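Hi everyone, sorry if this is the wrong subforum. Our group has a chain we'd like a structural model of before ordering constructs, and none of us has done structure prediction before. Sequence below.
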Amino acid sequence: MVMQHAGSDRDVIKNANSGENANDRKNDVRATIDELEKLTLTRGQFDGKLDLDRLGMSGHSFGAITTQAVSGQEHRLKEQTHKDSRINAAITMSPSITPLAGASSAFASVKSHGC
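Answer:
Right subforum, don't worry. Here is the predicted structure as tokens:
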């Protein structure tokens, strides 16, 4: 499944509010997983086809930033968390550099499950 976030492509390039857009994207992830959970509970086209106990996410560039956030990267404002514990694996392509003191601090709550 590929998520398309409304307003996060051309609008970002045209100096849209990227901070607000970033929060919207994180909320989109949560809402999408919530909807997938609902779909697995109903008989229909997804019946028996989704294993939400093994859920992964990937993203490139702004998508990588979103993936980092929902996978457990610490936010600049530590009281804000966007981690979704339902995500078990993450691949980031062209990820961001953390604005915190260092990667070990920013990614401390991201757990490796091995390959």
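For your construct planning: The first strand starts at residue 55 and ends at 60. The CA atoms of residues 98 and 104 lie 10 Å apart.
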